[in-house]
Design a protein that fits this description.
6 helices, Rossmann fold, binds S-adenosylmethionine, alpha/beta
Length: 221
């Protein structure tokens, strides 16, 4: 059985003002983001009944409302600036939190040990999305599910794709690695899950045009 070292927090980060900005941004805008993404999150996180859920890139807790009552949340979140908000909000919601300050490329969890892994707006940002999905698949029990809502590359030759390319560098700097034109559809489909249900959509009347090519889905191990 494989399990990475829990004490190895070398992938945790704090980029000072930029990390502080991101913690502020997601704390300030998460109601708005949840509003425009509501249809997608309702669909992806529906019937989440497991008493233990792993969330990768949990941020300041945008998805807490989707967790069942009495749930134990194992939050994998490498940004130290996100931790106070996440701890405060899980405490207020009465959610039992285990916070793992790690990048999800190496999950400090045993093989086949969880039933549900969720994430939103994270595969755009992680350093190595294929490695993250390999780890997600490793820690899921057979039949376990990975539920996701992500922004992805806009269709080729569309004005939005042009915009994504034009601003990708400053965007990645400001949002700590967020890559606007990532082909996450292919990454999920190639990750070796037994079944993948995936829909391509748009957020509802979103002001965030560069990130308005969206997928949500459920991949079953
Ligand atoms: C765009 S934010 C989304 C936060 C939250 N999921 C939400 O929907 O508001 C991306 C999150 O992924 C986290 N992240 C960055 N690199 C990561 C990695 N390698 N593994 C896991 N999470 C990571 C960031 O710290 C940040 O909290």
């Amino acid at each position: 059985m494989k399990q990475h070292d829990l004490s190895d927090t070398s992938t945790a980060f704090d980029h000072g003002a930029v990390s502080r900005f991101n913690a502020w941004f997601f704390r300030t805008f998460d109601r708005y983001i949840n509003h425009i993404a509501r249809r997608h999150k309702d669909a992806a996180f529906t019937d989440l009944t497991s008493r233990e859920v792993v969330e990768i890139g949990a941020g300041v807790g945008a998805n807490l409302a989707y967790l069942p009552d009495g749930c134990h949340l194992i939050a994998v979140e490498p940004s130290r600036r996100m931790h106070p908000g996440l701890q405060e909000r899980t405490a207020a919601a009465g959610i039992d939190l285990s916070l793992l300050p790690h990048g999800a490329e190496r999950l400090p969890l045993p093989d086949a040990s969880v039933d549900e892994v969720i994430c939103s707006l994270v595969l755009c940002t992680v350093r190595d999305p294929s490695a993250v999905l390999a780890e997600v698949r490793r820690v899921l029990r057979p039949g376990g599910r990975f539920r996701f809502v992500e922004h992805v590359a806009a269709p080729p030759w569309s004005p939005r794709r042009w915009l994504q390319r034009a601003i990708r560098r400053p965007w990645a700097w400001l949002f700590e690695g967020c890559t606007l034109d990532r082909d996450t559809v292919t990454t999920v489909r190639d990750a070796g899950f037994a079944q993948v249900t995936l829909r391509r959509e748009r957020f509802r009347r979103s002001a965030f045009i560069p990130v308005n090519s969206v997928i949500w889905g459920i991949a079953t191990r």
